[in-house]
Design a protein that fits this description.
heterotrimer, A mainly alpha (about 300), B mainly alpha (about 270), C alpha+beta (about 375), B: about 270 residues, mainly alpha, MetI-like fold, 12 helices, C: about 375 residues, alpha+beta, Rossmann fold, OB fold (Dihydrolipoamide Acetyltransferase, E2P), 6-stranded mixed beta sheet, 5-stranded antiparallel beta sheet, 10 helices, 20 strands, elongated
């Protein structure tokens, strides 16, 4: 015993570098500086840039101003873009939730043999790039695409399903569905089937059991999935660009356009900060909600 | 119990339809790649490899593909090394700043990548690097891929039974021998899963690439995006199919190495 | 209140027959324990009564109603689940009130009834707690209160004590029994713990492989098991194979490798039947053999010449259990006897001892050739 602890003490002394710093700290150094310099740094610079003045011939002029923010929020066009983006977020989240719930429930209650296969089916779309998946929808939704061809057989259409909000919405729901299914299935899986059984044996119908027992217990999953889908939806770039064909303007499109095509860095930065603030606010709300929800659980 | 059976059927049918919805676009892309016609029609017009031929003949697509591959490999190596080391430190050795460090490394994940791209773009121009060459892309991608490696390796380290290492030391193994013989084999699965995540994220990465790609270094998703804005003939489908097949191969190799579950759950 | 009547009930899962043509009738106010190892079909039977599993064949009646195909919520059966299945998002009060709300009982009446039953199960004052804030025993009583408050026709208990520690489990046995008698409610009690079944039940149905091996009072099950498998599953016993050499009414004389044993057995037994003799470890009396061991040991070992129901052997193992000492004694002929006796006087390993046991405590059962598999079943029952 005493020799072992003695050896440990020697070892501890060896692994210590002078000034009391453990040399293990070297492990964190690359990650720390990578994130500090190339993540936190750029965001701080973005914040700084958002208070600079616009200049006609250069990207910006270093006189501080609040004008960018006032334009970002007060300009009616910008305001409309923000509103459209949030609308997309809310609608997509709701539709995704409705479609993902039965899928998640089925997945959570599947036998473990089937579960593996179903999980692969849910997750495999994530392994395919977003541009490729959007392209799949373009083939399906184009005026002469497969959906309109199929509808034509019944003498319907052609409907214009692409280069408008409908197409964007369909693709958004599709692409972010797995992010809803997984947290939902996780929280549904934590509900002991006997708890639903108990509700039934106490006289509750399946419908009542769902609303009084299953749904409230799945709320943490609902919240996690919804927030994920909402944040992903409002920051989507590829889908509104390809399936909206620039007819549908969203905040990410606007920010990128302002910075890399109009070279208006101050305004672009201010828009980005507004966007960032919205995202952070939603994540914060979600945390609040989750805490409130979990007061009976855990 | 008629009602119960009917409910179960309704659930089954709707679930099947939703799965179809989930998988249809991917199958459609693959189908379009092998269809001989300009447009995908029903019934299909016949089987052909002509769009793959078109891809091979298209210099921009081939260049973009090879560039993406090189980029993803470099980024995977960087993210795996940096992320694993960071996970070790945060889980095993950090005390006061543990939560802060963890939050810092994970932060690029919840923040919209398009914003990170914007911030990096302005920053790189401000410090004079700009987007020439591919250094900006490598840094941007590594930043985005880092949390995936960090999270998968952390989750294993947290559940790691340290008495295994103590047992090795007790049996006479030194710190390095213990690391190579005990620790590494146990976390290897998580490292590989993290690396696969990093590779796929980088290979399919769009928003960061959109903003940071310099002239002459266009990753595949960006090349595909630019192409699709003006036409969507099935050359794009052939390119997509090849990149899907590549992802499947990567996943299958991982499956052979560490099992598929660890890829999804980051365990073991 | 109502009786329960199960008629030729059968349930299959894929190719496995979980419950096979089972018949069981419970009288009004009776508590029957379904006792058996895991996988014997007892829980499946209970879940069919509750309506969570649909019977493939047969009928289930509660009182006068045929409920075979009725949805669980229409059966009016209170159920307590093994892990209690309390609603984690509802307080104790809300949990207990749930069933009354479903029955559209007026709010004020709900309040009175919930408070009354919580008082009865000694949970007064804990009504605002969430289930996770309760101890195991309190959760258990909440589950009982929730099942009883709706005045169910029958009470179904699925291993309700399995998740409690040993001491609490023993207390709760008596508590559940007194509660059940107070409510005079027909109860099906599923358990793998034979001690629980013996203490609680009016009658015990021992289930094996989807069929009821034996149905009877606790005493009948313990002292007069009808098959070797029941003898071995319920309580500890020494089973010694032998052949009947004399049968006179219910008294049997059996020739075994360890010697001649006289005991009781059903009068259906015949001369020449192969049987198993069951002797409970606690019924054997143990005495030291002083001085004689070296002298006559070898002759007595093969059993010839020794007196009836008197065996001599060597202690091969002893385990101190506190109130008892558990011995294993080699009586020759390859037979090891397990004996549980008071801790004093105590005998050491390899000491030679004399075992005697009264004829009335020996029970003879016909060997139907499945006794070998009993040990494997026993292993599971401890889980």
């Amino acid at each position: 015993m005493s020799t072992a602890s003695g050896a440990n003490r020697v070892l501890e002394r060896i692994t210590r570098i002078p000034f009391g710093l453990n040399r293990m700290i070297l492990l964190i150094v690359p990650a720390f500086f990578l994130v500090l310099i190339f993540f936190i740094g750029p965001y701080l610079y973005l914040l700084y840039m958002s208070f600079m003045s616009q200049a006609p011939a250069a990207p910006y002029e270093s006189t501080p101003t609040l004008e960018n923010y006032s334009i970002a929020i007060r300009d009616s066009f910008n305001w409309r873009v923000i509103r459209t983006t949030l609308q997309f977020g809310v609608l997509t989240t709701l539709i995704t939730l409705v479609l993902a719930y039965p899928l998640a429930y089925h997945l959570a209650r599947a036998s473990s043999r089937v579960k593996g296969i179903l999980l692969i089916l849910v997750l495999s779309p994530l392994l395919v790039g977003i541009v490729i998946r959007s392209y799949g929808w373009m083939i399906l939704l184009a005026d002469t695409g497969l959906v309109n061809q199929a509808l034509g057989v019944f003498g319907l259409g052609p409907y214009s399903l692409m280069y408008n909000q409908t197409g964007v919405m369909i693709a958004l729901v599709h692409i972010y569905m797995p992010f809803m299914v997984l947290p939902l299935a996780g929280s549904l899986q934590n509900i002991d089937p006997d708890i639903e059984g108990a509700s039934r044996s106490l006289g509750a119908s399946p419908w009542t059991t769902f609303w009084r027992v299953t749904w409230p217990l799945s709320l943490p999953g609902v919240a996690a999935g919804s927030i994920l889908v909402f944040v992903l939806t409002i920051s989507a770039y590829v889908i509104p660009a390809l399936l909206g064909g620039y007819n549908v303007m969203t905040l990410p499109l606007l920010v990128v356009q302002t910075v890399s095509q109009l070279f208006n860095w101050p305004l672009g930065s201010a828009l980005a900060m507004v966007f960032f603030a919205i995202t952070i606010a939603i994540i914060w709300l979600y945390m609040k909600f989750l805490n409130w929800m979990m007061r009976g659980l855990t | 119990m008629e009602g119960e059976a009917r409910r179960r059927w309704i659930l089954k049918i709707s679930v099947t339809l939703i799965y179809l919805f989930l998988l249809a676009p991917i199958f459609i892309v693959v189908a379009a790649a092998f269809n001989s016609g300009e447009f995908l029609r029903f019934p299909p017009e016949g089987f052909s490899f002509r769009w793959f031929q078109r891809f091979l003949d298209s210099q921009p697509f081939v260049d973009a593909f090879l560039f993406s591959l090189r980029l993803a490999i470099v980024v995977t190596i960087l993210a795996t090394l940096i992320g694993t080391a960071a996970a070790f430190y945060v889980v095993r050795h950090s005390r006061r700043f543990r939560d802060l460090l963890r939050l810092m490394i994970i932060l690029p994940l919840p923040v919209p990548a398009i914003l990170t791209g914007i911030a990096l773009l302005i920053f790189f121009y401000a410090i004079g690097i700009g987007t020439q060459g591919s250094i900006a892309l490598v840094i941007g991608h590594t930043l985005i891929c880092l949390p995936y490696v960090f999270l998968t390796v952390s989750s294993v380290l947290v559940g790691f039974n340290q008495s295994l290492e103590e047992a090795a030391r007790n049996l006479g193994a030194g710190p390095w021998t213990t690391f190579w013989r005990i620790t590494l084999p146990i976390i290897k699965g998580a490292m590989i899963s993290g690396a696969v995540f990093a590779f796929i994220i980088s290979f399919d990465q769009f928003p960061i690439s959109l903003l940071l790609a310099g002239v002459g270094s266009t990753p595949l998703p960006l090349q595909l995006f630019d192409y699709l804005r003006f036409s969507f003939d099935p050359t794009a489908a052939a390119v997509s199919t090849i990149s899907i097949v590549m992802t499947v191969i990567v996943v299958l190799i991982t499956e052979r190495l560490v099992g598929l579950e660890s890829l999804y759950w980051g365990k073991r | 209140m109502g009786s329960i009547d199960l008629k030729s009930l059968t349930k299959r899962f894929d190719d496995v027959v979980a419950v096979n043509n089972l018949n069981l009738e419970l009288n009004d106010g009776e508590l029957i324990a379904l006792l058996g190892p895991s996988g014997c079909g007892k829980t499946t039977t209970l879940r069919m009564i509750a309506g969570f599993e649909m019977a493939d064949e047969g009928t289930i009646s509660i009182g006068e109603r045929n409920v075979t195909t009725l949805a669980p919520e229409k059966r009016n059966a209170g159920m307590v689940f093994q892990n209690y299945a309390l609603f984690p998002h509802l307080t104790v009060y809300e949990n207990v009130a749930f069933g009354l709300e479903m029955r559209r009982v007026p709010k004020s009446e709900i309040h009175d009834r919930v408070m009354a039953i919580l008082e009865k199960v000694q949970l007064g004052g804990l009504d605002a707690r969430y289930p996770r804030q309760l101890s195991g025993g309190q959760q258990q009583r909440t589950a009982l209160a929730r099942a009883l408050v709706i005045n169910p026709e029958v009470l179904l208990l699925d291993e309700p004590l399995a998740n409690l520690d040993a001491k609490l489990r023993e207390e709760m046995r008596f508590y559940i029994r007194s509660l059940q008698q107070e409510f005079e409610i027909t109860t099906v009690y599923v358990t793998h713990d034979q001690a629980e079944a013996l203490v609680l039940a009016d009658r015990i149905a021992v289930m094996m492989n989807g069929v009821i091996e034996q149905l009877g009072s606790p005493e009948e099950i313990y002292r007069r098991p009808q098959t070797p498998i029941v003898a071995d599953f319920v309580g500890l016993t020494n089973l010694v194979p032998g052949v009947i050499t004399e049968q006179d009414g219910e008294r049997s004389l059996v020739e075994t490798r360890a010697g001649v044993i006289r005991g009781m057995g059903p009068d259906s037994l015949l001369n020449g039947d192969t049987v198993l003799v069951s002797v409970r470890p606690e019924t054997l009396r143990i005495e030291g053999v002083k001085g004689t061991a070296g002298l006559m040991g070898s002759e007595q070992h093969d059993g010839t010449g020794s007196a009836v129901n008197q065996l001599e052997g060597d202690v091969t193992e002893r385990a101190f259990l506190g109130n008892l000492i558990d011995y294993r004694i080699d009586v020759g002929g390859g037979e090891l006897f397990r004996v549980q006796a008071a801790p004093t006087p105590s005998y050491d390993v390899s000491e030679r001892v004399n075992l005697t046991f009264p004829e009335s405590e020996v029970w003879v059962v016909k060997d139907v050739g499945e006794s070998i598999s009993v040990d494997s079943l026993r292993g599971e029952s401890g889980a």
